[in-house]
Amino acid sequence: LAKSTARGQYAFYSHELEEEALKRSKLTTELRFAVEEQAFEVFYQPIFRLDTRETVKAEALVRWKHPERGYVSPAEFIPLAESTGLINAIGDWVFKEAAMFAKALRGSYAPDFQISVNKSPMQFLTVGKLDWAAFLTNLDLPGKAISVEITEGLLLQQSQEVNARIKKIRDTGMSISLDDFGTGYSSLSYLSSYEIDYLKIDRSFIINLTTSSKNQALCKAIITMAHELGYQVIAEGIETEQQLQLLSALGCDLGQGYFISRPLPQQDFVAWLASSLSTTQLAEAAAG
Ligand code: C2E
Ligand code: MG
Ligand code: MG
Ligand code: MG
Which residues form the EAL domain (predicted)? Predict the structure, then answer.
């Protein structure tokens, strides 16, 4: 079949590559249609204080409601949305949903509730149609109600452009969370050149936290460093009670993960909040 030369191997694989390209263009067409139809749904995952376990924030995580495949994970379509430029339309829609939900929760659940919204690199570096700050003003919602999650890769370039955009976001009162911290880049120098508010320790450090003394040392160092720089720390992917307790002992401020709750559809999130609230109230009643 395939020749042993590089050229031959290319010929061997080209059929697969062609199929890949076809799949991609089909998915792009479907995604473009989904944007027109707004065939998305925002799920919310609680972010809680590690000391009191009180839910004080949530992360907005988009899903694509695909007619045949059901909910499609953002891990599958965000990269495509990024490369096709559809990301801004999707991101603006997610932002509007999240802002309106934050408004509702600040009225009904907690006056300082905050929702974080992910902004991928292309989305961060290009200008979408929606002026987020103006949307918040029209909603009569303070910037503090929203945190924008960006990833490390953006900060590596040490660019004036990125700095200016971060500043612009923070000037509106919105905060900046540095997502997936610790993955892929070892340079820490950029951390001191930007103003951020939250640092999110990537799930890969949390997975074997209780058995890996090295990961414990890394988390401890990250938490100490972040605090020295004036950032709060959020641990991602907490799946066990042990992980939660260990991170709390290490001084980590906040956490999110399947142990407390998976991302939930909006209505389920509201119901979940109500039940977790009544549990807290029960505990308070029992104590007092
Ligand atoms: P992320 O921002 O790092 O979000 C955290 C991901 O970890 C979510 O995956 C969440 O469901 C998952 N997760 C949370 N807790 C646990 C846990 O305890 N165990 C495990 N195994 N996983 C956990 P999800 O929802 O599939 O999102 C994947 C990524 O897609 C996000 O990673 C984010 O980078 C991107 N994304 C999601 N929504 C949006 C959006 O609206 N806009 C943009 N630009 N990107 C988005
Ligand atoms: Mg995120
Ligand atoms: Mg993350
Ligand atoms: Mg992540």
Answer: 24-277
The neighbouring-strand residues paired with 114 are 57
Nearest residue (by CA) to ligand 1, atom 38, is 61
pLDDT at 86 over 50: yes
Three-class SS string for the chain? Answer: CCCCCHHHHHHHHHHHHHHHHHHHHHHHHHHHHHHHHCCEEEEEEEEEECCCCCEEEEEEEEEEEECCCEEECHHHHHHHHHHHCCHHHHHHHHHHHHHHHHHHHHHHCCCCCEEEEECCHHHHHCCCCCCHHHHHHHHCCCHHHEEEEEEHHHHHCCCHHHHHHHHHHHHCCCEEEEEEECCCCCCCHHHHHCCCCEEEECHHHHCCCCCCHHHHHHHHHHHHHHHHCCCEEEECCCCCHHHHHHHHHCCCCEECCCCCCCCEEHHHHHHHHHHHHHHHHHHHHHHC
- Nearest atom of ligand 1 to the alpha carbon of 73: 26
Q: For ligand 1, is residue 73 a contact (CB within 6 Å)?
A: yes
Ligand 1 contacts CB of residue 94 (under 6 A): yes
Indicate if the pLDDT at residue 3 is higher than 50. no
CA of 61 to the centre of ligand 1 (A): 6
ipTM of this predicted structure: 0.98
Question: Does residue 115 surpass a pLDDT of 90?
Answer: yes
pLDDT band at 189 (very low <50, low <70, confident <90, very high): confident
Ligand nearest to the CA of 183: 4
pTM of the model: 0.93
Distance 143 CA to ligand 1 centre (A): 23
147-168 pLDDT tens trace = 999 998 888 877 889 999 999 9
